[in-house]
Amino acid sequence: MTLEDKLRTALRETAGEIPDDPPPLRLSPLAVSRHSARQRSANQHGAKQPRTQRHGPRWPAWAAPLAAAAAIVGVVAVLLTVVHDRPNVEGPSGQGSTAASGLAGIPPYYVALTIHGNYPDPAAVDSTAAEVRATATGAVLARIAVPRPYVHFSGVTAAADDRTFILVAEEKNNPPDRAARYYPPSRFFLLRIDPAASSPGARVSLRALPAGYIPANNEVHDLALSPDGTSLAADVGYVGNSQLLVFNLATGTRRSWSFKTCQQCSPSSGGLGFGGMNVDALSWTADGRHLAFVGPVTANAGRGVTSVTPGPVRLLDVSAPGRDLLASSKVVLKWPGSAERLPGPAWRGVVITPDGRTVVFLEQLVTYKSDGAIKSVRQLLAKASVATGKVTSVVRNLRPVGQYQQVMYTNATGSALVVYYFGLGYGIHVGILRGNQFTPIPWNPHTVTAAW
Amino acid sequence: MEPDEPGGAAALQHGTGRPAGDHWTGTAWPGARIGDHAAAAVAALYSDHAVSLIRLAYLMLGDRAAAEDAVQDAFFGLYRRWDRLDDPGRALGYVRTAVLNGCRSALRRQAAGRKLALHPTAEVSAEAAVLSREEREEVMRAVRALPDRQREALVLRFYLDLPEREIARIMGLRPGSVRSATHRALRALGQSLEETR
Q1: Does the distance separating the beta carbons of A377 and B62 come in below 8 Å?
Q2: Structural domains of chain B in order of their starting residue, each with its CATH number
Q3: Residue A41 has pLDDT above 60, yes or no
Q4: pLDDT value of position A271
Q5: Which among A5, A348, B98, B118 could bridge B74 via Cys, Cβ 3.0 to 4.6 Å?
Q6: Residue of chain A minimizing CA distance to B126
Q7: Is the dihedral of CA B77, B79, B80, B85 positive or negative?
């Protein structure tokens, strides 16, 4: 069989995995992807902005060179837009503003990555901007343009002080002059906000991190800023060859830990577990010393993988010596289910609470029809004890209305979470979850991801 | 009318020709002008072609849910712009291009946001007959490791069996570039499969 014949056959048979009964057509203006926040982007949402929020181009825009500090290797010009108007958000479930009482314990500000642009200008669409928003109202306090030569922000993480954030900016992806496999360079930026500053220019500063340059062909799979804002952990690499990096923000130094990945997995699974879905794979305890992550998936049948067991949640003491990630860390939570055939179960998100006592996680469960086809895929939000490794609670399932998709924030104990789910018509609902009580917050449907 | 560029649907609602900083001013919701006939026509097209388009997107993305989303988005984009469609007879071509645009966008977001659920690729059915399970996994693993453009060229050529000129039109390339991309892709594929032996 020639290579071309093999290719035709493989493509045809792989395509045959899609059954003949497509899902019903959705023509809802609120149609969105079922994938979670970082993947949601502008092309999936169609909610129109209320007429009451229309206003002319009254927002002053300015470019501000920021002061250089001793530990800073780069200073970039940022374009900030300060907003003095009503929030540009959809009300929770279309019902107006959120009850302030539901916000207790949740940081009042967050940084959202939002896609803006004027169709059909791809350059504009590429420019995912960062916005500082108020949790209670969704109002935009400042907008941060992507510093050139980078073209979009691709990730954000926050410290616990509600003032310190890290952004990842990337250069243009897959430029046409690159014939070979290529992933663009990226850089970490430190964003500090001061919403109370009297001068708009003093509200935000953006600075390139020392040692924060990630060269081409190294993806930043996931990142997490320690609650005390001193350390940044990032899973960086490409095609099964990634490593865990921890940057000391004060000194600009970094440490690295290496690990092996599942040899049978696709190139995109070359991160810390999740089989390529690495968002929320890293989280810190409050002391900035212990980092939780999900270990590599276990493939159970050699080259012809027939089942997998999602990797356990592990805890790394970053102050201890050692460079081997698995040898230097300990298991705190094993996958609560059993090995399943592919595509099988998976962690969708794993976050250790800052007090280090609880792991909040989303697990994805798959059920099959008798003929082997996938019957359903559902997410379950639950908590487990770090001390015992046992599941302690399962959050009320939203079915049939929706399923929780991502844990975007946890308070110190895990008693208050910011999560989102898709409701009827795949409308996005973002809000605060306490026990089984969900309090929606205003949310811009064009926001790709956010960090508190 | 051109199909949505990656990320285009949301931008659509904000209209065109406005300053970039004026993205919240908004325009009238395009769908408001669309009548029931558009929904019926789009639904009929969906009924006839959704499966084949989902399969196409699945080959590009390796993720069924993402593939379904790309197709849903493409049909939704078609629905919203139905009244601006020059020739309804070309709707299939439009939506196919939109699906591929959506796949490119999803792949870019995947790279940017690491969120596509590309699990270990052995998502194979038991009835794989012509190729062994292992062979097929190897081929698909190698296909998914290709740069997006090369993978797209291979899928259009060897799955849809489209002529080179049509592939060039869909991909927005010159036929020579398609030939070059296909050649490089096959060479890389061959090398990759050889290395796994």
Answers
A1: no
A2: 1-118 (no CATH), 120-197 (1.10.10.10)
A3: no
A4: 44
A5: B98
A6: A372
A7: positive
